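HOLO CASE FILE
Compound: iron/sulfur cluster
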Amino acid sequence: MTPPILTLETVSKRFVKPLDAAEKVANLFGAGLRAQVVRAVDDVNLTIAEGEVVGLVGESGCGKSTLGRVISGIMDPSEGRVLYRGADVARMGGKERRATDLAVQMIFQDPMASLNPRLRVIDIIGEAPVVHGLVEARDKEAYVAEIMGRVGLDASTRPRYPHQFSGGQRARIGIARALAVKPQVLVCDESTAALDVSIQAQVLNLFMKLRHELNLTYVFVSHDLGVVEHISDRVAVMYLGRIVELSPTDELFRAPNHPYTQALLDEVPRLVAKKRKFSSLKGEIPSPLDPPSGCHFHPRCPHAFARCKVDRPALKEIAPGRFSACHLNEEAPARPGRATADGAVLAS
Amino acid sequence: MAIPVLDVDNLVVSFGTREGELTAVNGVTFQVHAGEVLGLVGESGSGKSVTGLAVMGLIDAPGRIASGSIKLLGEELVGRSERELRAIRGKRIAMIFQDPMTTLNPVLRIDTQMIEAIRAHESVSEKAARDRARQALAQVGIPSPEERLNAYPHQFSGGMRQRVAIATALLNRPAVLVADEPTTALDVTIQAQILAEVQTLAADHGTAMVWITHDLSVVAGLADRIAVMYSGRIVETGPVEGVLDAPIHPYTNGLIGSVPSRNRRGVPLAQIPGMAPSLARVPPGCPFNPRCARATATCRADMPGPTLYEGDRMARCHHPVPAPESAAA
Ligand SMILES: Nc1ncnc2c1ncn2[C@@H]1O[C@H](COP(=O)(O)OP(=O)(O)OP(=O)(O)O)[C@@H](O)[C@H]1O
Ligand SMILES: Nc1ncnc2c1ncn2[C@@H]1O[C@H](COP(=O)(O)OP(=O)(O)O)[C@@H](O)[C@H]1O
Ligand code: SF4
Ligand code: SF4
Ligand SMILES: [Mg+2]
Ligand SMILES: [Mg+2]
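Model generated. Tokens follow.
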């Protein structure tokens, strides 16, 4: 059997938040403060098959972009392994590692911030493939023209600078730059978030067209559940650095298992013209500097019971291909249930 | 019927630029009644924010209100002096912005700012003003409001800051609240909480609200009426159900088709080709014609005027989208 194109094994990414000036002063007086550690990604396991589109959703700060950066090799994990076609990326030799870095490309949210304003579009798109020997320098013009055509840009605009393009066109330039190095996997981080809906629709259609033409694999990071529902085959829901649910898209949206997924789906504004009561989920996502014990979601969870404060629920298979990290799945037949004040769960 | 709280008639706002006089808002007309929410939607650059700023009396040089009228409870606002407008702003008309730091001062404590906002318009004791500020924070769902009054804006998360801005805007129970994309930068969970609070407040206070957004799904759940802007004009307006179920204008139809969640997964979205024209190069005739599948020679020559339709609706189009079978039945 061929190995999956990407495998994450118990991947964690920690950042150290250094003390600020006031905290250092406090330490001079014996406050004993230590640099804080953020677990942006916390023990994530994920396997991605070739040609698949995996959506990554969750609230701001839950670690989506960090996980995307680890997957695309921009950041190394603090713990765990990333395997590309079965080979451990961290143990690859220089040449193999460079080839892998090219094969997994990341496309960013804000195309303006990620495009060098002093470079012409021809160089933005054409530089890397020439440097990496994918095309001859003399074939650059023709190669860039071909890629621009593929993403729906007028090739005659290639001598222009990024600021001379609209937001939607800049998004296409970012996509063209990534495609130019002939990647196998695209990690798209909020790639359509800055766009108007009509332009977003154009770019999403382009992603789907490219998927079929080039047999690409996608990791699609977005806080927009509508976009993720539309484009993904499977969806991973993250909460405070952990994957709490992983499921084929249809099943996730039809019957979400994890209480957090249920709450998140409840909040999605839908294009149904009904005055509705918004909001069932109380409170905000807690600080990742000081995450709640046990199940991170317990302070906001309507079903929480005593065990949730103590034990971290593991991501377990609850049906073929469906995974969820919630103790309720073991306490059957309690769901759907309600927690009483003393922590017991009532079946309703 | 009672007179509308806000009555905007044929508003034209233009900006003097190097490329000449550009018309950002070109004959916008709408009314909002007490307790009603009008959703003003459209792509970026369509003139939504400029319309909101005009209602607030906040159009500064090189911009100007070239013509038209804005009435607050029957009283004309266009042409008032800056001093008169300042007395109205924050008291009878308030605005919240996408970035709450537009209204919050980073170097002042929350209590100082909120008390100041009350006492600028009313002579009440500091203590009474502080009590009211605390109640306002509690109303928008800020936990332990008494403690939070002593905090500075940077000590709040983005969602909390937006709540403080909303609480401040509502302190003087304004008759009109203009909200310019206030939840666009927030997570859906926080957006939903804030929409819920705003919905209750508007209903309880009878505030007339103009909710500006590019997100059709937000207005679908929040607004009573919807007005779709394109290139400085309202191209379609009507009750939310009617407009979303059976859009008349091809642009509205295209926008609805562009929203991913409504479509089947993996199937291409019904996209609108091209992009909105820049103000300096608005095409002749109907400004939507280069992107419109229904466009004809008439559309390229003549600007369609407003046409009224059954169900309290208006659209500007020479070739309206036929009503779907279900809606006709
Ligand atoms: N370079 C860094 N140094 C320190 N902390 C970081 C760094 N990058 C991210 N973090 C922290 O890690 C956590 C996850 O951040 P990340 O950017 O992955 O979130 P996200 O899910 O992409 O959020 P958003 O939806 O806002 O883009 C956050 O608490 C963030 O503050
Ligand atoms: N101060 C200004 N000077 C010149 N043009 C402006 C100014 N403010 C807005 N405009 C133009 O007016 C048009 C409408 O802008 P705006 O109302 O901000 O759009 P939106 O619908 O995105 O809120 C845009 O073309 C914008 O560039
Ligand atoms: S483990 Fe407990 S707190 Fe966590 S989601 Fe399940 S029920 Fe809620
Ligand atoms: S007037 Fe013509 S171009 Fe304009 S929206 Fe209607 S059909 Fe399209
Ligand atoms: Mg991110
Ligand atoms: Mg705007």
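CASE NOTES: The radius of gyration of chain A is 22 Å. Chain A touches chain B through 48 residues (CB under 8 Å).
CLOSED: yes
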